[in-house]
Amino acid sequence: MSDMNAGALKFAHKSDANPSCDFDLVIVGAGFAGMYMLHRARGLGLKTKVFEAGSGVGGTWYWNRYPGARCDVESMQYSYQFSEELQQEWEWSERYSPQPEILSYANHVADRFELRRDIQFDTSVRSAVFDETAGCWKLETSDGEHCTARFCVMATGCLSTPNLPDFPGLDSYQGETYHTGHWPHEGVDFSGKRVGIIGTGSSAIQSIPVIAEQAEHLTVFQRTPNYTIPAHNAPMDPAYAASVKADYAGLRARAKTKPPGIDIDFNMASALSASAGERQKQYEAKWAHGGIPFMGAFGDLMLDDEANDTAAEFVRGKIRDIVNDPEIADRLSPHNVIGCKRLCVDTDYYATYNRPDVTLVDIADDPIECLTPSGLKAKGEKHEFDAIVFATGFDAMTGTLLRIDIRGLGGISLKDKWAEGPKSYLGLSIAGFPNMFTVTGPGSPSVLTNMLPSIEQHVDWIADCLDYMGQNGHERIDPSPQAEADWVAHVETSAGLSLRSTCSSWYVGANIPGKPRVFMPYLAGLPLYIEKCEEIVANGYRGFALR
Ligand code: NA7
Questions:
Q1: How far is the CA of 200 from the centre of ligand 1 (A)?
Q2: Which fold, 3-161+396-546?
Q3: What percent of the chain has pLDDT over 90?
Q4: Is residue 490 within a helix (H) or strand (E), and if so which, with residue range?
Q5: pTM here?
Q6: Which whole number is the average pLDDT over 518-531?
Q7: 104 alpha carbon, distance to own chain's centre
Q8: Residue ranges covered by each domain of the chain
């Protein structure tokens, strides 16, 4: 069914290049990255196997089933573009897709391209060790199975290892507990229950209004208030969907020219040069449009504190307008840089605090003391709950990779190599770990962009590289330590140019105790990143040792 690789050259050397390996390629993870990698690998004729910890495809969208879970990128853009037939035939029902629909889409793709036969579900990879003599990656799975592969692609996702803080007394709590990132498949009915939720990040902001509708009482424990912009979600406008489909290639091409890889309007004018009236008009228009494009209101919002604060103050004004109790509105109002932590996109979040059955507890200066058998203790007060929801985020970008015992040349472990922060070349490969690739790894734009186009760009780059190696008889690829160090320095310099790197977010690992504080994603935007990737290829894979 593939219409992408119809004309692709077959991999010249296949497994006969190294008959001592069981597979040409092992892919870890069957989310959107792993699925597309498998599809491309098949087009190259590679003998490929995928290991997936879940019982189905979809990765993050398989696990994150909390009430209200929804993508914050519009449906028409949060989808694969590698197959024109696929993007023409799939119908999204809402402006922003809910999790179940994204998961249905992932399953549809798996069926349509017959991916399942090469995916082993319910299996995580425990270790991956490079055997220098055989030139194979040796993998061990959670079942104690072993296999070897010439190449290994880590498609392990950026938000796939939930963070459950080590609250004192955690085990003593007798009620139900849930983590937004690992939600029960059968769903949860909170009717008639007293529910506590810890955290006010994106997952909490999406789930709080929905849980509040159900629960007898909901208590929200907020450590840091967050900015959120209304989604104004609605059923998909058929005329809009048709207009996109009439020129899908045009939309995709425009998106590639924008830093976040999303076709949205950016006003490059300075907020500070505009009059107060012009600013208000522009922010109102962006608020009415909804979602992440709010940050495209002015060109200097992420460059200048004063400019940023004009947008922040606008949102604080909206909070004051929406929330009836001025004291609660004040508690909900963030005073850090807007857009520094990932901007949230919501449906009725602030208005939910007008409900008599919702309580906001500010724990900014007074952390949760402990969990108790019947609830938790905070600010000296005991709260009793039938259920506690941990909306406490993820060990993002590196957490999943570092849970696997990955060892490269000389037996060096990735954990040791990354002890002071992740180091990679292009976010795609790691010096000393030959023939291993990461999709949307640290050092790539990944989480700062629309993930699906970024995933496709990475996978295409990796697949083209494997093809090139096959055509040219190369056995091994490894970035040079110098090229890697230069890229790490470039990623760091780019981060320093934006206000985005100035706060304690999961982008810098601040949410995980002991995690090195390094701004992990590449901040210079997708267009520049693509340009650099292409330039490196055009120069004979500059920075890589190929042999
Ligand atoms: P986030 O954005 O990391 O949010 C986690 C929330 O949990 C955040 O409000 C944290 O407060 C809070 N948190 C974490 N640890 C604690 C402890 N120990 N005590 C109290 N509160 C805590 O994760 P999400 O799942 O909401 O969203 C992740 C991404 O998914 C999001 O950016 C989108 O890309 C989709 P903090 O802010 O650290 O003070």
A1: 6
A2: FAD/NAD(P)-binding domain (3.50.50)
A3: 96
A4: helix 481-496
A5: 0.95
A6: 96
A7: 19
A8: 3-161+396-546, 162-226+341-393
What CATH number belongs to 162-226+341-393? Answer: 3.50.50.60
* Closest CA to ligand 1's atom 18: 165
Relative orientation angle of helices 305-322 and 276-289, to the nearest 10 degrees: 60
Q: How far apart are CA 121 and CA 291, in angstroms?
A: 35
Can you read off the two tokens belonging to residue 248? 């899908």
- Please name the residue that has the structure tokens 């609250």: 167
Closest by alpha carbon to 31, among 102, 96, 89, 94? 102
299-314, pLDDT tens digit by residue? 999 999 999 999 999 9
Residue ranges lining ligand 1, Cβ < 6 Å = 159, 165, 180, 198-204, 223-224, 342, 367-368, 391-394, 506, 511
Please choose from 72, 198, 223, 362 the residue to mutate so as to test ligand 1's pocket, defined by most ligand atoms within 8 A of CB: 223
Domains 3-161+396-546 and 162-226+341-393 belong to one CATH topology? yes
For residues 411-433, give the mean pLDDT: 98
pLDDT score of 16: 53
**pLDDT tens-digit series, residues 134-174:** 999 999 999 999 999 999 999 999 999 999 999 999 999 99
- Contact predicate 376/385, CB 8 Å: yes
